[in-house]
């Protein structure tokens, strides 16, 4: 079962290698031969590429065993050879899929190479960001928060939210919602400042016992600040995270600018249902964020 699963994964993730072979544009591969399948080489470079793609598709998972991936490539090669023998490489659907994979691979490699050239943020940029966000760093806290998810009818949610925010303390909020909501779930957790996202500016100004209520599709969530624990970070401690965050932002902005520049220099004509003035054209004109700059 594990071999079959690895085979299916490797078969998908090494489609570029198969694509190049099927299109007759094999790259020059002088790395060591690890196996042959009816005379067709499987090389160290091909194995390394497959393992890299599998690892990228499963971030955080343990690295796959190289022997298992090699067996997957052997099975893949057998399937490819049988498909070529049956002339499936001439099937219009296969040709379309191969061309789509080629374009996707080229676009992805262009993005990877482009963003790799974006310079990392300077020490001054990192320091300025650190100083501009004291709640995240120099005055960073961890917040003990009670969260009460309450299911309540839409016409009653507003009034109940106001009552929860007027209540004093976590116990009072939980008791109120247990009494008046259709169902509740009460949890308590310690949240570092950076995990609060857009809630941080509000939470950081609250005192212990205060509550904010947030509308939810099925009712509301009441967040009560139970305690505040100072956990400041020095510039040296925060630098790696700030540098990575700013670099990711720089790469995203550079890619957006490059994409805008390429579009401005290209002739792009929309036809058929996407022709100017059609409903589809209006929907297509909505901005779409460029991807691929998150590395």
Could you walk me through the main structural features you see in this protein, from its secondary elements to its overall organization?
This protein is of the alpha+beta class and 295 residues long. It folds into three domains: 2-111, no CATH class; 118-139 and 233-295, no CATH class; 141-230, Chitinase A, domain 3. The chain is built from eleven helices and six strands. The protein has a four-stranded antiparallel beta sheet. A two-stranded antiparallel sheet has the order 1-2. A hairpin with a 2-residue loop joins β5 and β6 (219-230).
Cα distance spanning the termini: 32 Å
Count the E strands.
6
Task: Work out the helix count.
Answer: 11
> How helix-rich are the residues, as a percent range?
40-55%
Biggest sheet details: 4 strands, antiparallel
The helix-and-strand class reads alpha+beta
Rg estimate, integer Å: 28 Å
| Largest beta sheet: strand ordering | 4-3-6-5
> What order do the helices and strands follow?
HHEEHHHHEHHEHEEHH
Domain tally: 3
Low-confidence stretches: 9-25
What multimeric state do the chains show?
A: single chain
Based on Cα principal axes, name the global outline.
Answer: elongated
State mean pLDDT (0 to 100 scale): 87
Structure characteristics:
Chitinase A, domain 3; four-stranded antiparallel β-sheet; alpha+beta; two-stranded antiparallel ribbon; 3 domains; about 300 residues; 11 helices
Q: What's the gist of this structure?
A:
52% of the residues lie in helices and 16% in strands. It has 11 helices and 6 strands. The protein has a 4-stranded antiparallel sheet with strand order 4-3-6-5. Strands 1-2 form a two-stranded antiparallel sheet.
């Amino acid at each position: 079962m594990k071999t079959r699963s690895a085979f299916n994964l490797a078969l998908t993730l090494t489609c570029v290698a198969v694509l190049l072979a099927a299109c007759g544009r094999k790259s020059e591969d002088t790395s060591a031969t690890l196996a042959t399948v009816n005379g067709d080489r499987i090389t160290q470079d091909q194995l390394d590429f497959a393992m890299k793609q599998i690892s990228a598709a499963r971030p955080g998972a343990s690295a796959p065993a190289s022997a298992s991936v090699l067996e997957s490539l052997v099975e893949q090669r057998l399937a490819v050879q049988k498909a070529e023998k049956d002339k499936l490489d001439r099937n219009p659907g296969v040709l379309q899929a191969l061309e789509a994979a080629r374009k996707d691979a080229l676009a992805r490699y262009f993005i990877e190479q482009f963003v790799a050239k974006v310079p990392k943020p300077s020490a001054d940029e990192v320091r300025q960001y650190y100083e501009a966000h004291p709640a995240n760093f120099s005055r960073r806290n961890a917040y003990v928060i009670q969260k009460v998810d309450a299911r309540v009818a839409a016409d009653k949610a507003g009034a109940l939210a106001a009552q929860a925010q007027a209540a004093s303390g976590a116990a009072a909020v939980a008791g109120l919602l247990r009494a008046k909501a259709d169902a509740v779930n009460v949890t308590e957790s310690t949240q570092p400042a950076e995990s609060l996202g857009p809630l941080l500016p509000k939470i950081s100004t609250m005192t212990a016992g205060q509550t904010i209520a947030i509308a939810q599709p099925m009712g509301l969530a009441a967040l009560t600040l139970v305690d505040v624990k100072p956990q400041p970070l020095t510039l040296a401690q925060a630098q790696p995270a700030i540098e990575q965050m700013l670099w990711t932002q720089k790469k995203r902005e550079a890619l957006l600018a490059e994409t805008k520049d390429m579009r401005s220099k290209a002739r792009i004509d929309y036809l058929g249902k996407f022709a100017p003035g059609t409903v589809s054209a209006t929907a297509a004109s909505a901005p779409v964020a460029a991807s691929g700059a998150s590395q």
